[in-house]
Amino acid sequence: MGTQVERLESGIAVLTVDHPPVNALPANGWQELATAVGDAGADPTTRAVVLRAEGRGFNAGVDIKELAADPGHTKLVEVNHGCYAAFRAVYECPVPVITAVQGFCLGGGIGLAGNSDVLIASEDAEFGLPEVDRGALGAATHLARLVPQHLMRTLFFTGRTVSAHQLEHFGSVWRVVPADQLRATAVELAGEIAAKDPVVIRRAKEALNGIDPVDVHRSYRFEQGFTFELNLSGVADRARAEFVDGSGRA
Fold it and tell me: Which Gene3D superfamilies match (predicted)?
């Protein structure tokens, strides 16, 4: 369990998240992922990073049960910092991050996907933010990097998902492939990037981040403030309790 790191001879670092049963990460899981991405990018021999996951889905967001079990706000603060750190690590990784998504990519998974440089998805992949139904807000910043503005708002308000093929149509997903080809396809593309001059690629990543029209870190922190406000009001506690006991929406 956790985040495993595999280093290939080509200079590709393959990071695999494995938190059964659905890859809903606890607070320390987000921090562990942030550290793994940061360490991979800091290694001068790394030329590209592949971010993937084991199991039937890429990421189901935060561990709601961990938050529901905390009578205060300690875990909420920890998971907020953890998500922020993980999303930031992906965005600021000095080399391109190619993320391979299978099954569901929800909540915090959107933060990881939206801040990645390239997305490859399996045919069954779906992307969405169920935050409103969980009494939380956040990652609209990153969903807006995947879909057009008005669709982002529709998905955010309703909690609906969008398919990998739809994202491929928008150009957000580079390729949609059968699930059994997902890892190989991601590694193949990473290899193409890794074969180029590493100094040029690192400067290219820095340059692209520098011309980004949205400050993703500031924007996401703004969203997190509303999540904390909903927790202080008690709305989030009720939504999490409904989710844990099964009476809330799926």
Answer: 2-enoyl-CoA Hydratase, Chain A, domain 1
* Structure-block tokens of residue 217: 């870190």
The CATH code that applies to domain 2-180+197-245 is 3.90.226.10
Helix axes 216-233, 74-92, angle to 10 degrees: 170
**DSSP character string of 2-45:** EEEEEE-TTSEEEEEEE-TTTT-B-HHHHHHHHHHHHHHHHSTT
212 band by pLDDT with thresholds 50, 70 and 90: very high
Angle between the N-to-C axes of helices 235-245 and 216-233, in degrees from 0 to 180, rounded to the nearest 10: 80
Full strand arrangement of the beta sheet holding 97-101: 2-7, 12-18, 48-53, 97-101, 118-122, 175-177
- Greatest alpha-carbon pair distance for the chain in Å reads 54
Q: Is the pLDDT of residue 250 over 70?
A: no
Q: How many C-beta atoms lie closer than 10 Å to residue 108's C-beta?
A: 29
- The domain segmentation of the chain, as residue ranges, is 2-180+197-245
Pairing of strands 175-177, 161-163: unpaired
Which residues are 51's β-sheet partners?
15, 99
For the segment 89-127, what is each residue's pLDDT rounded down to a tens digit? 999 999 999 999 999 999 999 999 999 999 999 999 999
Residue 152: phi, psi to the nearest 5? -55, -45
